[in-house]
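Researcher: Final request for today, and then I'll write up notes for the group meeting. The sequence and the SMILES for pyridoxal-5'-phosphate follow.
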Amino acid sequence: MNTPIPRPGVLKVSPYIGGESSIPGVTRIIKLASNEGALGPSPKAVEASGGTADSLCRYPDGSCAALRERIGALHGLDPQRLTCGAGSDELLAIIGRGYVGVGDEVLASQYGFLMYAILATALGAAPVLAPERNLTADVDALLARVTAKTRVVFLANPNNPTGTYLPFSEIRRLHAGLPGNVLLVLDAAYAEYMTAADYRAGVELVDDSENVVMTRTFSKIYALGGLRLGWCYGPPAVIDVINRVRGPFNVATPAQQVALAALDDQPFIDKVREHTARWREWTTRALRDLGLTVPDSVGNFVLARFPSAAEADAADAALRRQGIIVRKMAGYGLAESLRITIGTEEEMRSLVDGMAAFLGDRVPA
Ligand SMILES: Cc1ncc(COP(=O)(O)O)c(C=O)c1O
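Model: Predicted protein-pyridoxal-5'-phosphate complex:
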């Protein structure tokens, strides 16, 4: 065949499909499909974005020095052990490129974030998925699937789309059972929403070991998904690998500047966390009152489970007719579920009204 041939695995990838943000013919859209922060970005970040024009003609600081300093100061981390990327997606992919090759295995949980299997497949590796219990990652099932070919374990904690999490004791148990040459990636995209006493994003484990890296993002509680900015904290050797593999200017200057302003507004982040918890609990209760199964979630989203995939699809279609976009979950093997991001109070009330109308039930008081 006289055509360019992609790497092994590439043509097996089903591309990730992001949440839609428009519906033809509908002007008032309520987008609850991509787990973006409920209240938008901090006004300080929005203001800073207006002042970024002067930076456009120069290359960015490829090391994101000021941003790493600020992240380090906020979280008590050594800036030398941080690196930044164009979203945590880019960092996950870079970690894959740095550690995973053709014929290797990448371990993740059954309903873990979809990108893990996608990036493994694109690298010619085999994604290995460990079954979950009660829509929650199962440490024993994960450990039972570690083989000599396992290179990386990706674990979102809390997980998207299930909204469940593992206490830190379980994360430590997972790490203790892994061979030292397997890299454990703790994807803590939703860490800022967490208030549970038994939860840790992973810093302590990174500090204590050579084979753990934690990834974070500005796309969720900071509501800066359009900026494309994430960061990770890891052992010096892992950070060194990431810095070798990543593009030299992978984070744009405006992204660095806006993120600095966003980090300065922690009271706003506290407000988003409190708002999200309140409306997540309200939405969970309201949907349960309508007869749906809704597992407890700790993220900025809930999973609404229907008796069948056909009913979930019908609910999705009914909501769309009202301009409400949620996320279908067939790609995760959860076709009977819809994932609903927590938005503003008005948005959540519209969502519950729309669902009640679909289910032909009364809106709970
Ligand atoms: C668990 C998890 N990890 C990573 C990401 C990627 O986020 P980003 O690339 O915007 O930082 C997401 C986004 O949905 C996510 O849910």
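Model: The domain at 43-264 is CATH 3.40.640.10 (Aspartate Aminotransferase; domain 2). The chain has a mean pLDDT of 96.
Researcher: Thanks, that's everything.
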